[in-house]
């Protein structure tokens, strides 16, 4: 059945290369039965290849080449090809695909797309020379971006409509209103908030009594859900600078054990100050009050609030903070017996509308000694300004703008926004608009309208227009990929000087951006999109079976681990394959609990940790991957296999038929998921695909839905025992365990018995090349907004990467120097 279909390719397509294969009897004997007819094996028919690559079948040619390279075709148990013959076939297939792509001369220009929301916000900020678009959350009304395979840069999902334009217009006006001020200068005032002025904000639907825990020293924030405010200054009165001084400290950091509170003893206590849509964290220690003071530009109407930022205090019952008061009951009962007896005998019986049970949380609220912040006072001074008009305004409009200067004022704004040189003729319509509006709006108001027009133009909202030169396009794209914003003047100047005409020049600039921190948006957003980390809680682990995951927000730590690991590898320019199979990662105490480690510092800081068992490390051993590919109560080798294939190997298996229903393992009847899948594979129409898919997933069956190691599937079920004395039925627990079988064999013949051997296979040359090729494809998808479809160009990038030991920065530079990134044939 499997007498190499690639031998057939030689018979059908190029008999002159290998005359020994030209005998049609070989085709009839070895290939016709499998790859022709109404139901060909693997849904692949020889007729689909035609007489050569063309638009309708070129992907089949590429897939054939990739399967031969991997040794998956012909299958190991049916292979009659020598290594030399296999290499000949590979050369023929690759030459055919390359010749087709050169002859067809596909356009390299990607279709235009609109800015996604984060690019829009960052670009507006930088066009207007701001540090932040505004604490009044001017972007809140924007429609959320739709993701495509995790990417928010995908062109097909970033269409634009009249509604989008309306929301962009409202957002731009809101930003301009808080950075260009036309009213008279407001007077500055000082507001002092004493403990009597501070209170816990009522978050209910009806007015209730003040529930603030207050003393002459200050107020306490006991629950992570509470917000503290100053009654005499709930929000800013005008736009400007505000100097805010907060006196705060931590209370009772170590009275209760951390196993009860969920707050690590070695972590600082965090007081979070909310300034509208911005936040600032203060690390608190016990002892004397500490003063935290800084100056912030705040928009008019910005609320100033404080909260207790922690992932602790949610371990009891369903995670509602009120149940944590029971910790106080347990502590007092053990350590303060006299107080406990008094409360139980005197206070509990007199409690109204409360339960009589002494351990009920409601009786112990006032005795709470858990970790919590205390705010002793608050001083707010403002608004004040460095000058009038403020410098951020004069930087845009000049100190004394006039109509005669409109073109001169708007030209640099348009250059930044449109990412290119702007001719006077292009600005003329906008200058005329300003002149027309000056009588009714005043000079400043009219110039604001001119800026609105610039920011609402297609040249701003739809980057990569044909009006850009090649150098301007490269600078705009480089900046957008690394920092999701417009290019600055130095970058534009370097591009115009030809500094990025070579791979070495691009790599030098990449290194500068990484050292300066300007590439942090890429280092955060690219791995988040590539690994589809937005899906981690789509089917979150069951809270009853895995309570720590939800109550300690383990998913957040897993996301942080993946991003920290990626950033470390990029900053150190490690080889790309190390991302997949490194023996280390970055974990904290909570992740250590999931991973079964005991030698990790007892805090929330992510630190590099080297695993010694061969099971973990790199993307393949991370809880993020293992959790987002699992269901709420169980794991699926198929889900994990498809994820590995698509996101790490660049293989896209055909979706299953709509009527396929893969059941989870029935542990009680001793049926493992392997048995279920084997039964599924008994259908010949399913077997061809699953023999390729399944080996990429079985290796991870030792990891449960939160990524913890397991040697057995376990199920505990209750049964009634009627033989008990007095004929009273007694519930017994029947625990069934079945060893996990994490072995499989690839079509190539490579076999593994567990995840450690699977990881070794992922280190071979075939897996390395697949992973590097996948990285290049994902990077270009992120950069271009569309997946690249030029096989030959990607192969050239991978080859250039190999010359530098596949190091990440070198590979990124090679990709940026390629026609696929430049979008032009050189």
Shape: flat
N-C termini distance? 46 Å
Ranges where pLDDT stays below 50 over 5 or more residues in a row are: 1-31, 664-668, 718-726
Strand portion, in percent? 5-15%
Q: How much is the average pLDDT? A: 88
Q: Tell me the number of helical segments per DSSP (H or I, 4 or more residues long).
A: 30
Helix percentage: 40-55%
**Rg over C-alpha atoms, rounded to the nearest angstrom:** 32 Å
Class derived from helix and strand content: alpha+beta
What profile does the largest beta sheet have? 6 strands, antiparallel
Total beta strand runs: 17
What does this entry look like structurally?
With 826 residues, the protein is an alpha+beta fold. Among the domains are: 5-104, no CATH class; 189-313 and 370-384, Jelly Rolls; 533-763, no CATH class. The chain contains 30 helices and 17 strands. The two termini are 46 Å apart.
Task: Provide key terms for this protein.
disordered N terminus; alpha+beta; 826 residues; single chain; Planctomycete cytochrome C; DUF1595; three-stranded antiparallel beta sheet; DUF1587; DUF1588; Jelly Rolls; 30 helices
Summarize the structure.
The chain is an alpha+beta fold.
List the SSEs and their pairings.
Layout: H1 5-13, H2 24-35, H3 58-69, H4 83-104, H5 117-127, H6 162-179, E1 189-193, E2 198-200, E3 213-214, E4 219-220, E5 228-230, E6 240-251, H7 258-261, E7 269-275, E8 278-284, E9 290-298, E10 304-309, H8 325-335, H9 337-350, E11 372-384, H10 391-397, H11 406-418, H12 424-455, H13 458-461, H14 470-483, H15 489-496, H16 503-516, H17 520-530, H18 547-551, H19 554-571, H20 577-581, E12 584-587, H21 589-595, E13 607-610, H22 623-628, H23 637-649, H24 673-681, H25 684-693, E14 712-721, E15 730-739, E16 744-745, E17 751-752, H26 755-761, H27 765-784, H28 791-802, H29 808-816, H30 819-822
Antiparallel strand pairs: 1-11, 2-5, 3-4, 4-11, 6-9, 6-11, 7-8, 7-10, 12-13, 14-15, 16-17
């Amino acid at each position: 059945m499997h007498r190499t279909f690639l031998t057939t390719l030689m018979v059908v397509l190029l008999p002159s290369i290998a005359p020994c294969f030209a005998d049609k009897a070989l085709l009839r004997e070895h290939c016709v039965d499998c790859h022709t007819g109404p139901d060909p094996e693997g849904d692949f028919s020889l007729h689909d290849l035609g007489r050569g690559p063309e638009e309708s079948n070129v992907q089949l040619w590429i897939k054939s080449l990739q399967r031969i390279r991997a040794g998956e075709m012909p299958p190991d148990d049916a292979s009659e090809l020598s290594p030399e013959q296999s290499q000949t076939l590979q050369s023929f297939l690759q030459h055919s695909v390359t010749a087709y792509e050169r002859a067809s001369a596909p356009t390299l220009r990607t279709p235009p797309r609109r800015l996604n929301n984060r690019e829009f916000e960052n670009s507006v900020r930088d066009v207007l020379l701001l540090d932040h678009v505004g604490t009044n959350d001017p972007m809140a009304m924007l429609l959320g971006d739709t993701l495509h395979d995790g990417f928010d840069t995908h062109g097909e999902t970033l269409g634009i409509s009249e509604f989008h334009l309306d929301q962009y217009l409202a957002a731009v006006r809101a930003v301009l209103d808080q950075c260009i001020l036309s009213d008279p200068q407001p007077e500055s005032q000082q507001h002092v908030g004493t403990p009597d002025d501070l209170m816990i904000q009522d978050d209910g639907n009806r007015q209730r009594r003040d529930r603030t825990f207050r003393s002459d020293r200050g107020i306490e924030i006991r629950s992570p859900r509470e917000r503290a405010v100053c009654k005499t200054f709930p929000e800013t009165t005008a736009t400007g600078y505000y100097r805010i001084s907060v006196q705060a400290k931590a209370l009772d950091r170590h009275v209760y054990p951390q196993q009860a509170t969920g707050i690590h003893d070695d972590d600082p206590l965090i007081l979070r100050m909310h300034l509208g849509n911005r936040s600032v964290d203060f690390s608190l220690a016990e002892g004397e009050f500490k003063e935290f003071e800084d100056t912030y530009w705040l928009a008019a109407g910005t609320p100033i609030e404080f909260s207790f930022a922690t992932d602790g205090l949610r371990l009891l019952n369903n995670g509602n903070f009120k149940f944590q008061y029971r910790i106080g009951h347990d502590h007092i009962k053990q350590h303060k017996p006299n107080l406990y007896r008094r409360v139980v005998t005197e206070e509990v019986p007199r409690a109204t509308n409360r339960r009589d049970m002494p351990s009920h949380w409601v009786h112990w609220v006032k005795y709470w000694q858990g970790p919590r912040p205390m705010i002793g006072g608050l001083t707010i001074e403002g608004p004040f300004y460095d000058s009038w008009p403020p410098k951020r305004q004069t930087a845009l409009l000049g100190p004394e703008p006039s109509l005669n200067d409109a073109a001169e004022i708007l030209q640099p704004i348009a250059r930044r926004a449109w990412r290119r040189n702007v001719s006077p003729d292009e600005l003329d319509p906008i200058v005329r608009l300003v002149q027309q509006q000056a009588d009714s709006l005043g000079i400043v108001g009219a110039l604001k309208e001119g800026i609105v027009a610039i920011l609402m133009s297609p040249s701003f909202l739809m980057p990569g227009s044909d009006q850009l030169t090649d150098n301007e396009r490269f600078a705009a794209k480089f900046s957008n990929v690394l920092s999701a914003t417009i290019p600055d003047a130095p970058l534009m100047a370097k591009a115009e000087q030809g500094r990025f005409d070579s791979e070495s020049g691009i790599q030098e600039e990449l290194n500068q951006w990484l050292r300066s921190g300007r590439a942090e948006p890429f280092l955060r957003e690219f791995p988040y999109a590539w690994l589809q980390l937005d899906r981690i809680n789509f089917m979150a682990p069951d809270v009853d079976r895995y309570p720590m995951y939800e109550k300690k927000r383990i998913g957040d730590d897993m996301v942080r681990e993946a991003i920290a690991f990626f950033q470390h590898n990029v900053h150190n320019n490690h080889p790309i394959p190390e991302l997949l199979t490194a023996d280390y990662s970055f974990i904290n105490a909570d992740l250590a609990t999931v991973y079964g480690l005991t030698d990790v510092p007892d805090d929330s800081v992510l630190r590099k940790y080297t695993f010694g068992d061969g099971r973990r490390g790199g993307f393949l051993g991370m809880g993020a991957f293992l959790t987002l590919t699992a269901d709420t109560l169980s794991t699926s080798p198929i889900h994990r296999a498809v994820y590995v294939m698509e996101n790490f190997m660049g293989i896209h298996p055909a979706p299953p038929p709509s009527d396929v229903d893969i059941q989870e393992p029935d542990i009680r009847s001793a049926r493992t998921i392997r048995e279920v899948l084997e039964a599924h594979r008994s259908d010949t129409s399913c077997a061809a695909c699953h023999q390729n898919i399944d080996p990429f997933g079985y290796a991870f069956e030792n990891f449960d839905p939160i990524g913890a190691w397991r040697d057995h599937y376990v199920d505990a079920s209750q049964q009634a025992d009627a033989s008990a004395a007095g004929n009273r039925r007694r519930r017994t627990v029947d625990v069934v365990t079945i060893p996990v079988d994490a072995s499989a064999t690839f079509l190539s013949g490579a076999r593994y018995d567990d995840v450690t051997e699977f990881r070794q296979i992922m280190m071979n040359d075939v897996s390395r090349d697949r992973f590097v090729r996948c990285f290049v494809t994902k990077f270009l998808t992120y950069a271009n907004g569309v997946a690249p479809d030029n096989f030959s160009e990607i192969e050239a990038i991978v080859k250039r990467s190999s010359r530098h030991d596949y190091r990440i920065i070198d590979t990124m530079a090679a990709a940026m120097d390629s026609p696929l990134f430049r979008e032009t044939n050189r």
